[in-house]
Amino acid sequence: MNFLATAGDTVLRSEKAFTSLVNQYLDEIYNYARYMLADSTEAEDITQKTFLSLYQNIQKLDLTTSIRPWLFKVARNHCLSYLKKMKPETFTGNEDAVSDIPDNYPSIESKLDDQITMDRFRMNLETLPTAEKEVLLLKYFEDLTFEQISEIQGVSENTIKSHFYRGKNKLFNLIKD
Description:
The protein is mostly helical. It contains eight helices and two strands. It folds into two domains: about 80 residues, Orthogonal Bundle (Rna Polymerase Sigma Factor, Chain: A), CATH 1.10.1740; about 80 residues, Orthogonal Bundle (Arc Repressor Mutant, subunit A), CATH 1.10.10.10. It has a two-stranded antiparallel ribbon with strand order 1-2.
């Protein structure tokens, strides 16, 4: 395998560059896909497809900047393609119109004190619509900013915040019951 990675003005052919990126992001991409799809086998396939895309596009990428958002975007696209095959989803189309929603609920972090609550959290997370579930996964489990999630999903930051607060409130209500 030959890969191109830029280091300043020097172009290096290196299998190590690709291997290093795979080792660095493999678990994050797999976990993201596993939570998005609730299927570990499909998550493995999505992870493999994501890194195959990296392999095919590594010469075009600027490796002097973080490649993490690009990998999540590719993984997201593969997950959404899979989910579309499994079931159709409808969108209201007015998500951009929603601005910041006041957050009058205690933080989810405070509700995740014990393992039982965490298990309930994961189980209830699966019941959320894909858009809300994805934002919560990227925010809480991958520690991405709203701006980064917006870049990954290709929608406005207000839409991301809307999905986040809506999903967070739904989860809080499910967990507190």
